[in-house]
Amino acid sequence: MNIITQTPRLLIRELTAEDEELLLIIDEDDRLTQYVKKRTPQESKQVFKDTLKEYKNGSGLGRWGVFNIADNDFIGVCALKPSDYDKSRIELGYRLHLKYWGQGVATELAEALVSYGLNKIGLKEVCAVTHPQNVASQRVLIKAGFAKEGIVFWYGEDVPFFRIER
Asked: Any idea what the Cα angle at residue 29 is, between residues 140 and 34, rounded to 5°?
């Protein structure tokens, strides 16, 4: 297991083969996928397999699991990887279990990933987009230091675009 980064509350690490069920559960919860493309169980399994393969490329980018340091509870998933819509940009993303909403976990996670990306692996910038109605995630990005820079057409619709740079 490779640890990507951590905060006083959060451990962000590579997923292992034993973690597949954790990702499937989060992908099945309609409350957690209301603002992202819904995946079938087969699609989720393929994303998981691809995620494990991508760790071997050594880029320092990818999808990871987020765990509570205190009790190793699975909090959710996050990503810092080339955008599917603009490969020249590194996109931040996350999904957290409902019980962790409203506790500052998403902001703490976003700040940790930005610090990791900009300071540890030397990115010049990190971007993020949200569903237009996902006001909570837009607030998280602003709190984490991102600037809103207009609208882009990604994920099949016009979405707010956020960016932070070194």
From this structure: 50
Contact 128, 158 (CB under 8 A): no
What does the alpha-carbon distance between residue 77 and residue 149 come to, in Å, rounded to a whole number? 25
pTM to 2 decimal places:
0.92
Cα separation, 146 vs 142, in Å, equals 5
Give the whole-angstrom CA distance, residue 97 versus residue 83. 23
Q: What is the pLDDT of residues 133-148, one digit of tens each?
A: 999 999 999 999 999 9
Q: Are 146 and 163 in contact (CB under 8 A)?
A: yes
Q: What is the DSSP letter of 159?
A: E
CATH topology of domain 3-165: Aminopeptidase (3.40.630)
Residues 74-84 have pLDDT tens digits of 999 999 999 98
Task: For CA atoms 18, 51, 142, 37, give the dihedral sign.
Answer: negative
